[in-house]
UniProtKB/TrEMBL annotation:
InterPro entries referenced in this protein's UniProt entry, alphabetically: AAA+_ATPase, ABC_transporter-like_ATP-bd, ABC_transporter-like_CS, ABC_transpr_LolD-like, MacB-like_ATP-bd, P-loop_NTPase
Gene Ontology cellular component terms for the protein in this record: plasma membrane; transmembrane transporter complex
GO-annotated molecular function: ATP binding; ATP hydrolysis activity; transmembrane transporter activity
Homology family: Belongs to the ABC transporter superfamily. Macrolide exporter (TC 3.A.1.122) family.
This protein's UniProt keywords: ATP-binding, Nucleotide-binding, Transport
CDD domains listed in its UniProt record: ABC_MJ0796_LolCDE_FtsE
Organism, as annotated: Gilvimarinus xylanilyticus
Protein name per UniProt: ABC transporter ATP-binding protein
Lineage: Bacteria, Pseudomonadati, Pseudomonadota, Gammaproteobacteria, Cellvibrionales
Residue ranges constituting the ABC transporter domain according to the UniProt record: 2-229
Length: 229
């Protein structure tokens, strides 16, 4: 599904060039559950942004579904982000004035799905995360864990090939973090490909494979045999 070949990313700061990624090569197959770990400045967020087609590498090659991403036009990249990728963020990014079913429907505004079908699909995704009884509530009427469940439902509504989760438990207490990670595990067992960035070892334990980053390079890759597809 994803193939990285000697991926590099440089940032310019005045006369200084910062090498955020230095020759990253890795393969990710369909239905893998990947965690990316590393200290601040290790390159894990830069790698996540490139994998999610939010940024472009400086060098190397990145193939998504057999297509080289750097050869895609801006319109093609936007279509990939909307059709093939779902994002879950640490801060939820829900619109406060919309109820949760309308928040989940938002990605479907850019598709050809009619409003009735969009509403039905959003309700289906909210039922999948056990929030079918809160459809008309707005985000500030929900707990942090419930808001993250809404964000996961929104990421799922376009039936993406990959879900990217950036520190999805960073604003949650330990009990709620376990509930959210169990939900990700359930999605993975159902066939979803998940790539997650975290700095917490106990969160990374839910993943099949843990990619450890340091100084813009992959330091090591660990496999968790206890995680079943």
């Amino acid at each position: 599904m994803i193939e990285l070949d000697n991926l590099r990313k440089d940032y310019r700061s005045g006369d200084i060039t910062v090498a955020a990624l230095q020759g990253v090569s890795q393969s990710i197959t369909e239905n893998e559950f990947i965690a990316i770990m590393g200290p601040s400045g290790s390159g894990k967020s830069t790698l996540m942004n490139i994998l999610g087609c939010l940024d472009q590498p400086t060098g190397g090659r990145f193939y998504l579904g057999g297509r080289e991403v750097s050869a895609m036009s801006d319109d093609e990249l936007a279509a990939v982000r909307n059709r093939d990728i779902g994002f879950v963020f640490q801060s939820f990014h829900l619109l406060p004035r919309l109820n949760i079913v309308r928040n989940v429907m938002l990605p479907l505004r850019y598709s050809d799905i009619d409003p009735a079908e969009a509403r039905a699909r959003a309700e289906q995704m909210l039922a999948r995360v056990n929030l079918e009884h809160r459809l008309e509530h707005v985000p500030n009427e929900l707990s942090g864990g419930q808001r993250q469940r809404v964000a996961i439902a929104r990421a799922l509504v376009n039936r993406p090939k990959i879900i990217f989760a950036d520190e999805p438990t960073g604003n949650l207490d330990s009990k709620t973090s376990v509930e959210i990670m169990e939900l990700f595990s359930e999605l993975h067992r159902a066939g979803q490909t998940i790539i997650l960035v975290t700095h917490e070892p106990e969160i990374a334990e839910y993943a099949q494979k843990v990619i450890h980053m340091r100084d813009g390079k992959i330091e090591k890759v660990e496999h968790n045999a206890s995680v079943v597809r």
